[in-house]
Specification:
The protein is mainly alpha-helical. It is built from 29 helices and seven strands. The protein has five domains: 52 residues, no CATH class; 162 residues, no CATH class; 190 residues, no CATH class; 146 residues, no CATH class; 70 residues, SH3 type barrels.
Length: 795
Amino acid sequence: MGEIETAARLRFVDRPRNRPLASDDRLLVARSAAARACGVTFWQDHSMSTELRENRLTGAEDDAAEPVVDQRRRFELLDDCREIVISQLARVVSEALDRMSDELVAIAMREVRRDAQQALLDAVAVVREHRGDIALRFRQSFAEVVEQRMFNRSRPSEDRSATQALSLVDDDEIEDRIALERLAKRSHDRLDPDQVLGMRARLAALLDRDWFEENDHPASPEAVFDALQSALDALAPAAEVRSALLQAFEPHISAGLNDVYSSVNERLMSNRILPTIRPRVVATPESRAPGQSQRAAPDGEALAPVPARPAPFEHAHQVQAGLDAFDALIRQIAAGQPSARRSAARMLADPATFGMADLPIPSPEPPLIEALDALQAMPEAPGTGRGEMVTKLLEQARDKGSALDQVTIEIVSLVFDYIYSDRRLPDFVKQQLLRLQVVAMKAALIDRSFFARRQHPMRRLIDRISEMAIDPDADVGPESSLCAGIAGIVDWTIEHFEADLGTFEEAIRRLDLLGHAEDERRAIRMAEITREAERLEALTQAQEDAHAEIALRIDPVTPAFVREFLYRWWSGALAHARVDADDPHGAWGAALRAGELLIWSVAPKAPDEIARLAALLPKLIGGLMKGLQAVGMETPERERFFNELLQWHTRAIQDAKLNAGRARPAVTSAVRVGPDGDIRFEPQAQSAASADAWHASVAEPGARRTYGPGEARVDALQRGDLVELDAAGGARHTLRVAWISPSRKLYVLTRFPDAGRSLSRGELIELFDSGRARRAAAGSMLDRAIEAVAQPEAS
């Protein structure tokens, strides 16, 4: 066996570059693989047949070799990839910085530990003060990391620290490294394995080297977080502040890396750098001879190291068991067993089995693809119903497709059933998505990873359209520019898609351009809503201040109707004076003096004060009428108040005349009017008690109330979250949280074309507690559809 293996390696290494294996070479490699079965690890897919698996391992289905890329072109592509990685991740970091301030404040508001809350607030200050510096330092540091990883160059920081290699490592440095590794692992868990594999293999092929380890390629999460930490070291010296910032960056980095990887892979594949990556038989580290390193992959192939598997015979048994189960499912579907479709859907949606973009399983039957091509090219008949189209598709699958083709077509039809029943999607957009049904079936047949791989281009296209359409702030009227744009992109996709999944990438690019135009339209509207929300928050705060000032001035003898007027209406007039007047300070003072004069006017009067009251009444009435213009007091209610006030003043004047010799009232008022008509306010003990009572009963009713679970749900809301609200008649509307006040006392929810709906924190909590409000379901529409289709039948 050693001679066979050696001969296979020699003949494999010595063959000319870019020349396919000859038939005897293939046989020799296959025999070598069989001879080494107990010492190697086989890549496996439970869905493929034994014959296909053997063909894959021997390279029997290798594509024609790629053309040779000259050295100049390699350097150009390397420079392109370097720029893509650096510029796109710099943009991800810049966009993250735009949002992190609000996000960190929201987290700080929920944090109960003072030290952690202070670290978060310090992190907010760093972002606001050094946003530009962080972005610039990250780009510079990340460029160094990329250069170092691509070309094995040392970073300046590493050169400086080389002499300290033997020194003791500080505990803080160890903790920082552990924290970075934890963040990188969290990011790794969210990455598309196919895109990661492409980065490792294609960049290595471009550099003519062994492929990169998962953690060491130029754009790995480790590289990004290393660069971020370097950027933050000087600006956020406190470890806890750096940690808070890195934690805040993580979700943005994780979300952006897949797009970066996709861009690089598309660039390299379009230039024939490993357009297809085929996993191969590779010895595990344990099975290699001492001193033996992993050999370089032949041109056009990538040698994917595979984690340790069970023993060979146990492994083969598992593979065969999976194959038998799938074959049995196919037979059950053919026999009409309803639950078999869902079982097949679960298997097809399993990333461990069908999660690769280049699956070694049978291609779809050509007659079926030809039939779908004909349906795709057929003009759409206005009267053709959706059911009729699905029936045609299923008939074509039964007549011209394999059993696996039939399963694929049926499951795609079920997924579109789910999409069609989603009440959040506007009818017009549903119709556009249904027009893509034939295209989706072809895409799922050509690339069987459709159900298991979220990054499948067709899935991304459907999800992007759905995401844009269900956005509460989107204008999805049939005549809107958004719907017209979606219809145009659907037309283009149907016209141009044949077999190249890159067509969907171009469609997504066009959707992104459409989305940018929609964002610009929305930004104008959101700016207006935000301004109004900030004004409303200012009014709310000013009204609370007005309540406190009124509570200090009213007397125990102030009539109830005047108290109600002051708290209910005049506090609003004071708030508008502070927020809306050209001279807020002067307007607030004038409105406050009018309230003080009202309080004094209804207090008990000595005979010598009647003349002053009569002289000041026109000024009082004029000031009150002017202030009430801003608060919208209805005419009947306003007339009722002034009539009651007139009667009170009339009785006070008559009473003073009838009791001319009566002593001055013993009640000490906080508000007095001097002989010259000037109003003086001197806080009294009873005024302070009145203010305390008001604070306890009016200002903070939430402090006395115990809310239900809705309180935690409301406190967890962030800007951009979607909330479903029940409306009259059983209707349900989805709104976006467009604005949250800094104090989290006021929330503005928006839905096009309505203006923003403002709700206090208490009102929103009550809606959640009563079940009339809830967080809208998050995640991809297609993810939910596939999960629903794959669920077992209810018993």
